[in-house]
Amino acid sequence: MLEVTRVSKIYAAGDKALDDVSFSIPAGQVVGLIGPSGAGKSTLIRCINRLVEPTSGSISLGGTVITGMSSRELRSVRRRIGMIFQEYALVERLSVMENVLSGRLGYVSFWRSFLRRYPKADVQKAFALLDRVGLMQHAGKRADALSGGQRQRVGIARALEQDPELLLIDEPTASLDPKTSRQIMRLLLEICNEQHLPAIINIHDVVLAKQFTERLIGLKAGAIVFDGTPAELTDTVLTRIYGEEDWTTLDNDTESD
Ligand SMILES: Nc1ncnc2c1ncn2[C@@H]1O[C@H](COP(=O)(O)OP(=O)(O)OP(=O)(O)O)[C@@H](O)[C@H]1O
């Protein structure tokens, strides 16, 4: 369970990027975070994984308040949060298996990871995850030999190898074609359901967000202007979030999927 309470962020440059943001996400719920460019989506994700310190407010994960922690405490918090990135962030020259095992870096000692001697249980878990994301036969391949969709599957397996309590997913499909994007969204949803993982997906594609998430949070100028189901995200609400636009093509897109 993630709880964000009255979080605001004012950058040193003076921009108010988040304005009194509050919401909570129960275990297993996948939330699509939408809003125009500059609305504060990345800032919110960064406040949660503690790359950015909120100016005020608090964030708690599984009952532990994670705002205001020391840098030593942050290491243990970050390993509880799995990150999945638009550009995958894999180590290209390493194998698929080694990339997945790097999800354990927050747990194993420096020398174990330097010598690439991960505990047996970690390796077994990595194999099980590669099987789950459909990449078992690619375990020994170098990451740079994979397609975009396969790379994102490695990114998902790596985040899960970490045993996270929360997934933060940043534009997971922005570099993928429409079919692969849907496969990746479906896989993410299934895994979060299976593992009762809460997740936030920062996503520009409103059609995909409506199709695959059960709840959407709309940010505008740092404030939450919508928090509801895909069915409640009407044209009027879309205009409130993004401004005046002809949304009929969006409806057609949704119907044709
Ligand atoms: N490091 C920073 N220093 C100063 N201002 C920043 C910084 N990062 C973001 N901002 C400002 O905070 C506001 C919110 O930016 P943010 O990147 O969180 O929006 P976003 O919704 O993620 O946008 P996009 O969809 O384009 O990634 C913007 O006005 C931006 O200029």
UniProtKB/TrEMBL annotation:
Origin superkingdom: Bacteria
Protein location: Cell inner membrane
Record domain ABC transporter: where: 2-246
CDD domains per UniProt: ABC_PhnC_transporter
EC number: 3.6.3.27
Assigned keywords, A-Z: ATP-binding, Cell membrane, Hydrolase, Membrane, Nucleotide-binding, Translocase, Transport
Chief place of localization: membrane
GO cellular component terms attached to this protein's record: plasma membrane
Membrane topology per record: Peripheral membrane protein
Any GO MF annotation of the entry: ATP hydrolysis activity
InterPro entries (UniProt xref): AAA+_ATPase, ABC_transporter-like_ATP-bd, ABC_transporter-like_CS, ABC_transpr_PhnC, MetN_ABC_transporter-like, P-loop_NTPase
UniProt xrefs under PANTHER family: AMINO ACID IMPORT ATP-BINDING PROTEIN, PHOSPHONATES IMPORT ATP-BINDING PROTEIN PHNC
Protein's name according to its UniProt entry: Phosphate-import ATP-binding protein PhnC
Taxonomic source organism: Granulosicoccus antarcticus IMCC3135
